[in-house]
Model the fold of this input.
Amino acid sequence: MRIEEDFIGKVEVPEDAYFGIFTVRAAENFRISQSKPHPDFIRMLALVKKSCAQANVKLGQLDAKIGNAIIQASDEVAQGKHDNQFILDSYTAGAGTPFNMNMNEVIANRAEELLGGKKGQYKLVHPNNHVNMSQSSNDVIPTAIRLVLLHQSAQLLSAATRLADALESKEKEFSKIVKVGRTHLMDAVPLTVADELSAFSSSVKKDILHIGRARSLLSELPIGATALGSGINTHPAYKRTVVAQIRKNTGLKVKEGRNLFRLVSSASDFFAYSCALSSLALSIHKLSSDLKLLSSGPNTMVGEYVLPEVEPGSSIMPGKINPSIPECAEMIANRVFGLHHSVQLACAGGQLQLNVQTPLILHCLSEATLILSTGCSMLSEKCIIGMKLNTERIRQHLDASLITITALSPYFGYSLLSNLVKKAQNEGKSLKEIVIQEGLLSEAEFEKLLAPSRLVRPSLKLRLKRDKK
Done:
């Protein structure tokens, strides 16, 4: 062990550790969940540190020798070479100061080592004076979170787009199949399978647009704000310079924050992004719930859709198959709903010039983004692409439905047809039989008026050859 000292006192630190006294104190204080921030966060935070060092060297604020050592150490961290040095729990002190100092200490000690010094001495490179130059946890941590979400949401958008494409492909495949629509879980007027699926694909595409708009909010960075937004202790050109370096180092299209005070004190951009994720989760939940209903039975319930068989459905019932993929997707959506509520509370938890609940915002939004991404991929690859139809079952349900008589309402009125539906139900007869029996239509007229093309799209009223009672 080595001894490090701060203004509170002395602490033992493992001799070979790149982290230091602040990290040890935080690790002892916050033993909460045994979960850690995603590696994407460590990578992006390291790239922020690299960018800050580059900006400070370029502006003459930081000695080039020290700056280059910091840049090299930051690159090593971003490449995952020191992942075991980031030991803090996801739930930690407000504003993410322990995350920032863990990174500062690791980079400082590695840079010290690169310059010929020893870990823990901080004689050549200091975590606060050099690595954290022109920065505060208050602008560094939300900047890194934004970069993480921009990176992870790009994967999500790709996965969601593939899901929408898979649904649209099935729309084309099943475009001519007419089936019974249902409202209140009861028979309603007909529609095509393509119509049914288009509601899902359209919803997902709408959610993709919402996420895209939210990403544009996240692209505005608070870096350069330092503690509150004033940019105290920074060079006048620092904000512009560091944002340019972040763009170069991450490949992300980010921009300078227009009002740094808002970006530090308000978490509204994170809330907007969380709302967009929740909207996609809602669409996934609806799709999954309906797929379960439409494939249910399959012999004793709806049984119109045939989902791919991905695993046995029971440990006791031989041959049973469950809608496992939609079930899992529903659970993913429910988890996102819960995470969104936590984000809402965290975003509302700021006071005065700072929102301190950024660790919780990071934890929830990163998890929500990642599980939605894998959930969309799972749905498209393991369910939608291989989905088939039981066309015989669909035809049976359509033929048995009494609601197709709705198409005759313009000719005979709601009241008369309501009585005919009731009569058909009581006598166990089809609509066709009842309508012809009552002398309202000939068989040819019935077939013409209730042709599938007239049942699923707007159509002009036909003139019948004779008056009807």
